[in-house]
Amino acid sequence: MNVSPEGRLSLEQVKYVEVSDPPLLRAGDVLFNNTNSPVWVGKTACIGRDEQVTYSNHMTRIRLKKQAGLPSFYAWQLHHLQQSGYFLARCKKHVNQASISTTYLSDVVHLRVAPANEQRRIVETIEEQFSRLDAGVTALERVRTNLKRYRTAVLKAAVEGRLTEAWRKENPDVEPASEMLERILKERRERWEKDQLAAYEKKGKKPPKNWRSKYREPAGPNTEDLPELPERWCWASTEALAQFVTSGSRGWAKYYSDDGATFVRMGNLDHETVTLDLSHVQRVNPPAGAEGTRTRVQPNDILVSITAELGMIALAPDDLDEAYINQHVALARPVNGRTGKYLAWYLASRNGNRQLQSLRRGATKIGLGLDDIRAVNIALPPLAEQGQIVAEIERRLSILQEVEAEVEANLKRAARLRQSILKRAFEGKLVPQDPTDEPASELLARIRTERERSSPAQRRKKKPARDEPAEAQPGLF
């Protein structure tokens, strides 16, 4: 992790070791990431100064011969090979990781050698252009962070009634939310009674005389500790507004299939929108009976992640085909379907999500229970104002998404430009060549002379690698 994807040494997260005589890194050493997931094998960085820093066995330390030129020239070249997929195509695959051995790196990987003065010009130009790119990327990332803050602020202002202050002044005679809540509670009870009668009928039994007394009215919120609401708003619990709150069960893996119904999992929800992402889904042939009926998603249902990344919200769209939830997702079905969008946005807002986070349980494996979701307090506007609030949210977040898409496009463009700079550098096209520079062949000749001066015991004899040219150049390392 200490070699960044941009080829920089990053010491923000470090570990310390007590070793009597560790191999220390020094200025000019090149660190090559020899073991990682396949796409990251070969990340490379150059050490800029002497420090009390050693390295793990996942890194290969390369110490170049002084006649080779600038270590950073070769570090950038190795990093370019990694970025272009060279090591990805050649690494040895293991379980969950891959590697490039030191022998392969030394004997097989060929580097281009430029005149020493041209190396210096190339490195200076790379770092100058990368410095400008880094500044631009930092600015884009700052914009991205501010956009996330803006989204949070929009939702918070919306569910507190601040986005619709002018609307309320222009529409003073709308039905209060309290009257709508009374109708919802009445409808909630009527649905329960209908379901109970249907259950008795299915069993071929008559309901007992006191069967209606078994109905449990949803608990109302304790408003003493809750903030004051705008005029005509009221507080209500999720339990009062959503009659059907359930989650999936374990054991659905046996129902997986290549086709069939959509199986909604945590990966189909996120923290940014209330849109259900169905671009990648698991398919199931659902079980017959109560389990399949209970976990089937209907349009306008609110879905909540209840483990790990808990509190992600999605609203089931009107055009949703047959779909079911797994055990990591809870389903809340609004009594009045017209309140669904507002409820989803409220739960996704900081006001709603903080309540969900405060109710989570567990130490090592956190989660939410269905009673926790039922207990969330909702600041409920009149139905007409809910529509206006949702329209304001969607209008503003639509603009935000366009800006976010532009930011992401520019970040990808910066990554491509970074690779293009390295490609041009090691094709000899980034800086002008100077005919007065000493040729690279003379640089290599000095390395060969130095090798020949060393004693046989100091020379490492090796067989040419399979794809090494017949006239192999003297080693740089």
CATH H-level superfamily of the largest domain: DNA methylase specificity domains
User: What is the share of helical residues?
Assistant: 25-40%
The total of beta strands comes to: 16
Question: What structural class should be given to the helix and strand makeup?
Answer: alpha+beta
Helix-strand string: EEEEHHEEHHHHEHEEEEHEEEEHHHEHH
Give the distance, in angstroms, between the N- and C-terminal Cα atoms: 24 Å
Overall mean confidence score, pLDDT: 90
**Count of individual helical segments:** 13
Q: Using the alpha-carbon principal axes, give the shape.
A: elongated
- Based on CA atoms alone, the radius of gyration comes out at 32 Å
Widest sheet, order of strands: 8-15-12-13
How would you describe the overall organization of this protein?
The chain has 3 domains: 1-115 and 438-477, Adenine-n6-DNA-methyltransferase TaqI, Chain A, domain 2 (Alpha-Beta Complex); 117-168 and 389-432; 175-381, Adenine-n6-DNA-methyltransferase TaqI, Chain A, domain 2. It is 40% helix and 12% strand. The chain contains 13 helices and 16 strands. The chain has helices spanning 71-83, 86-90, 102-107, 116-159, 165-170, 177-202, 238-241, 290-294, 340-348, 350-358, 370-374, 383-425, 440-453, and strands spanning 30-33, 35-36, 44-46, 59-62, 92-94, 97-99, 234-237, 242-247, 256-257, 261-264, 282-284, 302-305, 313-315, 323-325, 329-334, 377-380. It has a 4-stranded antiparallel beta sheet. Helix 4 runs antiparallel to helix 12. The two termini are 24 Å apart. The model is unreliable at 464-472 (pLDDT under 50).
